[in-house]
Specification:
Largest sheet: 7 strands, mixed
Mean pLDDT: 93
Helix content: 25-40%
Radius of gyration: 21 Å
Number of strands: 9
Strand order of the largest sheet: 3-9-8-7-6-4-5
Strand content: 5-15%
Order of helices and strands: EEHHHEHEHEHEHEHEEHHHHH
């Protein structure tokens, strides 16, 4: 796949060439509903269905090719968020499903039996419903204590921090849920610092919704120190599927939702429910390679994307901040265009 960089900056013509939809006379402004899809991802789906649409795990040649493509998809998924190339297959830390909403629902159901009767769940009140509804339902079903994590009401200070989380934490806290980036405000939360705060309580886990963050910045779940992390590939130039990461220690709290006769050694066994469409999983290597063939290349691409986005959002925010000074509008969230503080959602 040809590079989308030119002298460490985004080559916009090269970017556009990877998306067949952008060759039409149409301006797409519906990014909240998902991104357009890479041509290589589209071709991968067709090729899989035409050439390798057979049962996985079979010993014959085409069956082996199909299994290899499927495994390559999971490996690309692991590479994308640094779950580790040696942590797929029988010791994997990822599961693929139809959406982040569905994966969180599966996760909540799996956790239901392991949480003690006096457990407390803390939910961010500025999250997408995907990372709220399942936990509210779990608290209701199990009669658990649910606490709401709400940041300052000041328009420019709507940010989740370890400081405004700390008063809610107790020795009974078992799960904290929040978003990496608000899909409304674009504010980037310091997930590493929040994870460290959560883990000061023995047995407490952090579940992060990365849907609004994944299209804009590189993800490293090991560096973040999260227990659960999910995002949707259809926000990152792929088909309508999603990924959930669970750390090995967190997986010990999970009950398998699969058939009783299936193994329960992997996260996919426990939460997948045969929902990972083979032909869609096969597209994930092409998405990874769009950002670069090596980790070094991908870091350069993500840096170029962040720089380009910062330049674009500064134009809008400079205008809106001036209008706020004039009393015409109110800007909620971070007012700075700094790429380290916000993404352009």
């Amino acid at each position: 796949m040809a590079s989308i960089l030119a002298d460490h900056h985004l080559d916009l013509q090269a970017v556009r060439s990877h998306f067949p939809a952008l060759q039409q006379k149409q301006v797409f402004l519906d990014n909240a509903g998902g991104s357009q899809v890479l041509s290589d991802a589209i071709n991968s789906i067709r090729t899989y269905l035409e050439e390798t649409n057979v049962q996985l795990g079979a010993s014959y040649n085409i069956g082996q090719k199909a299994t290899e493509k499927y495994n390559q998809g999971f490996q690309a998924a692991a590479d994308f968020l640094n779950a580790g190339v040696d942590e797929i297959a029988e010791t994997n830390e990822t599961v693929i499903g139809p959406s982040t909403t569905q994966l969180f629902a599966n996760l909540a159901q799996s956790l239901a039996l392991s949480l003690p009767a006096d457990a407390e769940i803390i939910c961010s009140s500025i999250d997408h419903e995907a990372n709220i509804a399942s936990w509210v339902r779990l608290a209701e079903i199990r009669n658990l204590t649910l606490k709401w994590w709400t940041p300052s009401a000041e328009p420019g200070d709507l940010k989740l921090t370890p400081e405004n989380l700390r008063p809610l934490m107790s020795e009974k806290t078992k799960l904290v849920t929040c978003t990496h980036t608000s899909n409304i405000l674009g504010t980037i939360h310091d997930i590493k610092a929040i994870a460290e705060e959560v883990h000061k309580v023995a047995g407490a886990m952090l579940c992060v919704d990365g849907v609004a963050y994944a299209p804009h910045r590189e993800i490293d779940v090991k560096e973040l120190g999260v227990d659960f992390y999910s995002f949707s590939w259809y926000k990152v130039y792929g088909p309508h599927i999603a990924l959930l990461y669970a750390s090995p220690p967190a997986q010990t709290s999970l009950t398998s939702l699969g058939h009783y006769f299936h193994p329960t050694t992997t996260l996919a066994h426990k939460l997948g429910l045969a929902a990972a469409s083979y032909e869609l999983v096969s597209t994930l290597p092409s998405i990874l390679h769009y950002f670069g063939a090596t980790p070094t290349e991908r870091k350069r691409t993500w840096a170029a994307i962040a720089e380009h986005e910062q330049r674009l959002q500064r134009i809008l925010l400079d205008y809106l901040n001036k209008k706020e000074e004039d009393g015409v509008v109110v800007v909620y969230g971070v007012r700075s265009a700094d790429m380290a503080l916000r993404v352009p959602v």
